[in-house]
């Protein structure tokens, strides 16, 4: 079917541009995925998905016209084109001038990985969680994989193919004592086959399962932290939730160029401590947000957004690049062929610094040490945020003391970045699924350990 789409695309693009247009595109996608959920010592849910279709896009005078179909017959594809061609004018078409291809090189392809071996991963994670402590009462394990083939043919003369393979494991543990329950959670995954879970350097399954169980048990004896402004140290283990949410979204051009970001109009200005460099990179091997080409056929690249505190660039897709006279940074991503591509992050992180993270708490009389962050809310227009703290500890007189529960961090993204006093040489990563405009995208986010002069900690007064 992919060969048929490749063969018919020049004809479709010519028809698409026959009444005018600045850019036309055929996007073909074939997607295979499996999902397994393990609870109560057995597989509760299991599914295998397969989807295939084509999206057709026309950009004319800065406006986007889009249609899609899962019926890949010539008649159906022509009907989508006819529904879009309602504009007077004359468009230019180039087809097949440049061919590019990419493929995620894997050892253990999800399509060939036996179901019995997937079940072994679930059983192992379940056993590790349940054997961690007698107070662990429940374990929930979810295993996901996907194989996504895309073909993009456009009026710039480009023909681009990419295959993206991802795996992910999510572990939840529930501990109970004296009628009180607490949940612990951890996850891992990336642009990889199932060899991700069979590495020699680290037992990924044991690591994340033990982490989830540890957090559940730890929470049973945790205390509510005192509320108020105080220094905060965020561990590299926390991943880059803050940089992704509180900073990254505001650097997406579809928001920033419309004035819907606190960073709008500030290219070249100092927006953070000189210790802060923020990067979005789609080329890092095996990271969840990596790929060879984005969903518009633009090669993945490394984009420096903030360098030594100064705002250098936003993230662009083809449309925002056309609207602003810039070049796409390879951040045009879409959930499926049913969706138009929009600006999305890939692997966004704070670059490691030169400071020793073990020294960060020595001079703090009262503060919070954050090991793991959870969900939250961000206002991209003014940069204000609120995040949950999943695992954290009080810092008292230069030492880490008791674990906390029910804590949250409140602040402003740009101000928090200006208040960074130290950046560690360590760098940790987390995975996530980012939601925007009703679309989901797999991402990675990371940071080294950082010390922030002051944030508001939500707790008890």
UniProtKB/TrEMBL annotation:
Tell me the GO BP annotations in alphabetical order.
proteolysis
Q: Name one GO cellular component term.
A: cytosol
| Organism whose genome encodes this protein | Persephonella hydrogeniphila
Q: For this protein, what is any one GO molecular function term?
A: metallopeptidase activity
Residue ranges annotated for the Metalloprotease TldD/E central domain, each copy included: 109-218
Tell me which residues make up the Metalloprotease TldD/E C-terminal domain: 228-459
Name of protein: TldD protein
The record places domain Metalloprotease TldD/E N-terminal at 25-87
Gene3D superfamilies found in the cross-reference section: PmbA/TldD superfamily
